[in-house]
Amino acid sequence: MGRYVARRLLQMIPVFFGTTFLIFFAVFTLPGDPVRALFGDRRPPQEVIDAIREKYGLDDPFIVQYGKYMSNLFQGDFGVTLQGRDVLDVLSEAWPISIKLAVAAFAIEVIIGIVAGVLAGLRRGSFIDNLVLVSTTIVVSLPIFVIGFTVALLIGLPLARNGILPSSGVGGGWRSYVLPGFVLASVSLAYLARLTRSSLSENLRSDYVRTATAKGLPRSRVVIRHTLRNSLIPVVTLLGVDLGVLMGGAIVTESIFNIPGIGRTIFQGIQNQEGSLVVGITTVLVLIYLFATLLVDVLYALLDPRIRYD
Amino acid sequence: MRGGVARAVNGVSYTLNPGETLAVLGESGSGKSVTAEAIVGILDSPPGFIPKGEVRFRGDNLLALPEARRRQIRGQHVAMIFQDALSALNPVHTVGSQIGEMFRVHRGMSKADARKRAIELMDLVRIPAARARVDDYPHQFSGGMRQRIMIAMSIALDPDVLIADEPTTALDVTVQAQIMDLLAELQRERNMGLILITHDLGVVADVADKIAVMYAGRIVEEAPVHEIYANPAHPYTEGLLASIPRVDMKGQELYAIKGLPPNLMHIPSGCPFHPRCPYRRDDVCTTKVPPLYDVGPARGSACHFWEEVLDGSNR
What kind of architecture, by CATH, is found in domain A93-271? Predict the structure, then answer.
């Protein structure tokens, strides 16, 4: 296992360079001029434009820009935005907020999703099973901005009026993250509940569950010890991927709930063609994804003894 | 999916005494396993259900007992082993914990004691280096060893009745013989009743005391093992015995019973075997369901013309 993890960590190096190169290339080839975007409608004097282009090395060939960027990156320098702010500062401001949001969403997803899936899977065809199936179908088929605005208007506003939960911004401590967390989690929660349900009910029909019943074990033990753990193996994969997705911030959810997280930052970065900002954020995102998938693979081996990587 | 009720088992009745081995013989789909699952109480319901019947164990009707009481009987008094030990053992728990679980749950033993007992049982079923292998997982054992673990688990609490559902079908021939020997030996030592469900006539002859032959969810013949081999009283049994490969018939084509076993949704009228039967007489066999006729001491045959079959005139 240790060797496997070490090998995976080594494999991350080419993946890291490959993805950053692609992202840098994508941002580089974006149409439009970042310097013009900076000034909006006003057209600055040509000398100013040239000075800025010179300062940020925008006239260098692509490969030189990439090389400079990467060498700075390894010295801990993420570069500077066109407005003159240190990218690292922007990141360290926005990311903690997105991580709090991700933690809230992940907790909501895991608790509600797994509980709903287990209840539905244990009693197929029951009221609760149908409730889970219908409600998850609705959630999955709605675009996230519809869910977001609906929740903000129908639930967020009344709650905010009564002072129970804030519906905008992050001024209210952890309570600010409840509604956006719920919206952000909703779609993955629905998939998770469905996956848990089908995985559990499939396992309940397996031969080893029949054996466990034939051994005279109580139903609770049959379900918890002999079914749940086996059913959780595919669920863990989904959760690992979700963790990566959630940590990456959420453009739509953060916009609706006015949360100054990484999603909003990256959106603004793309709009303003802030190359170093976008590449900086995605570089960190790539790392998060790589570690999330590694975590999934390690958990996989812990849950299922048949999987050994060495 | 097609709707409807399949009568997988219909009017089956058998008796087992302590220390006795009953072989239940039949083709796939004849209702052998469903009967066994109904006895142990692990029939999947829904979709399965038992509209009528009794399972009497020491005088109690198990089907009428509350679930909590049935659960205590399962595993402790009536145990079961399955055909494919790889899928019947839980892949994510060690074999030691799966065997020890019997003691933990039914006897309230501590983890360490249960583990000790698991090692003893693995020794008993002759798994080499039991102490070293107790913490291994099922996939780390060979097929024969896995079936031994299944057996160790099933006999852990010294059950009165052991139901073995095709215990050797998934194994190769040499291992089959070892497993059957082990089962026979354990049965002798413990005076267990053994119900051996199989489609393999070769397995049956050596170990069984009596045989019940099932066809389309019914028992068609019941007899002590030697009598059935010497002189079957039902055309289906006769066909089964004729289809065993024999050394003196080498080079000749094997005998096969004509036709296919019936679809349980559409069991033929009258005697369910009549479409495949060489003794058939259309007036009787297609209309009248044969009862299990008394054809001798402890023998029964569900054939209207059992006397003819016994004479062997139509062979």
Answer: Orthogonal Bundle (1.10)
